[in-house]
Amino acid sequence: MKKIVVVGGGAGGLELVTKLGHSFGKKRQAEIVLIDKSQTHIWKPLLHEVATGSLDINNDGVNYRAHAAKHHYQFQLGTLMGVDPESRTLTLDSLSDDMGHIVLPERTISYDILVMAVGSVSNDFGTPGVLEHCYFLDSHKQAERFQQALLNQFLRIHQEGMDAKLKLAIVGGGATGVELSAELFHVADMLKAYGMPEMSGKRVNIQLIEAGPRILAALPDRIASLATKELIRLGVTVSQSTRVVRAYDGGFQTADEKNIEADLMIWAAGVKAPDFVADIAGLETTRNNQILVKGTLQTSEFENIYVIGDCCACKQADGSFVPPRAQSAHQMASLVFDNIKASFLSEPLKEYTYKDYGSLVNLSRYSTVGNLMGNLMGGSMFIEGRLARFVYVSLYRLHLIAIHGWFKATVIMAAQKIGKVVKPKLKLH
């Protein structure tokens, strides 16, 4: 019986093992194993809501072990250290508890087919001081760490009186930085109802810093322009064409030697695949550690290794690479499932073609803007307001359906609706 190992339980990885489990694991035609360094899955586009306390990972996350039991695959908790493609093995780091005691030793796991879906991490571009002084939003643990720091800062300025203001600086004008900026204002306003009557968005100073000429560089100009206007209307200081050269305890220094003071500093400027990926012998990688693949999403040297999601460098016909987005991870997962199934039947494999179905940016309760259709109809349809918000929420619901099925996903969505009525709208601990 063949062993299929998927490393990384993000949007693409979890959807893939769910399909593999139902097609091969349930019928005992293959052993399906998911490896992740976390116990819980959260849809990555929602991490900025975890970071502000708008979303509680304990209520909205998916426990891998429980999910595996219901969807016919195995789950192993561990951090990938390396891969040996020649011997078809991978090594997981030892696992320790909070006291430093080793729970599991370093382990070696064999595979017949390997799918690398390890996602991405923030790219600090070697900027001095960033690792020491900034918060990142690469995982729900990092998001929760920021949420605790944010709550402590809100408590501090509330106690200091009406003149005190919380200063936040966010480096990176991509979707994460833009959506986080708006969500922070929303959270500050909501705190009025939770024991901080003097709190409001007016007591938060947020500076969004982008090195490029405009925010949301990967999206159409119209979306970026409207998002910029909405952020400025909220009170965000949008600094474009501003390059950060150093982070220090209390702020950032820019290339023109200006200092931007901040109580909390968030780094969301660009992504790269984890550093260990570049050390895997025999795999071609880009300067951002992404693994180069053929059109079938197999690596050039090893046909039994597939790559999906943010760590995948798949070149398109125009010479550009497929963007690291949730929709591309979803499409890649579907294609790799089809190709693994085809390989079992000795049928030809399919080539991957990225289909851009548009982009949406959600500015909390204030606005949602985006474009739909993309390549689907050879053009683009701009949307905003309630329709855009509905489509944005629908993307998450489609992800729930992919990993749970229609019935359970519907139950989960209903439970989340009820939970918003009976539970606090903010995570306050």
Automatic annotation (TrEMBL):
Domain FAD/NAD(P)-binding as annotated: residue spans: 2-333
GO molecular function, one term: NAD(P)H dehydrogenase (quinone) activity
InterPro entries from the UniProt entry: FAD/NAD-bd_sf, FAD/NAD-binding_dom, NADH-Q_oxidoreductase
Classification via SUPFAM superfamilies: FAD/NAD(P)-binding domain
Keyword annotations of the record: FAD, Flavoprotein, Oxidoreductase
One GO BP: aerobic electron transport chain
A Pfam family recorded for this sequence: Pyr_redox_2
Cofactor(s) recorded in Swiss-Prot or TrEMBL: FAD
Family in the record: Belongs to the NADH dehydrogenase family.
Protein name: NADH dehydrogenase
Highest classification ranks of the organism: Bacteria, Pseudomonadati, Pseudomonadota, Gammaproteobacteria, Oceanospirillales
